């Protein structure tokens, strides 16, 4: 195993972890962090992210960096004594109520994407990268899928790496956040995809907006392959 990609894939397999499980264990805000390593888009990890990656995969930083072939961390020696004579020098804040979590069976597919370059946020690559929970509000909606957000064009509403749920059946309304997928290129490459907000729809044009940089973008309708509605978080929670 000569690369970070190979070592992470090995650990995921031997630990019996999915990418999503490892991402949660590491507390990564960028939900595509481990996926980018597995797909070879991120070959070097340092600092706090390296520590979190080691914790998530139950290994050491030295193994991830290729400094040792031993993947399992050494056990920490326990000191004798009850510790009753120790004086605490830190205090912990009162627990805050946890944010609502999405539960349910993990059977909503995360469709694979690649960075879209200058002409798009992403491109679908035809793969299923992972599965995310199906909350009760999505029971019976078999066409729903998820993707990981690419780029910063919709921050702070949607941050890079965040997973979003998409409903390809319910028609989007003006003001909804949407996935716009263009038709395939002449060379057969998948068309560019965009996460934007729907501003206007006419018989010939679709107008969307983004935050960073703030601007509107127009698409000719005959170039648009799909226009799918992003499901709001409150709707996922059944609120």
Automatic annotation (TrEMBL):
Residues 8-64 form the HTH cro/C1-type domain. Keywords: DNA-binding, Transcription, Transcription regulation. One of its GO terms (molecular function) is DNA binding. InterPro entries: Cro/C1-type_HTH, Lambda_DNA-bd_dom_sf, LexA-like, LexA/Signal_pep-like_sf, Peptidase_S24_S26A/B/C. Coiled coil: none annotated. CDD domains: HTH_XRE, S24_LexA-like. It comes from the Bacteria. Pfam families: Peptidase_S24 (PF00717). This is Helix-turn-helix transcriptional regulator. It comes from Salinarimonas soli.
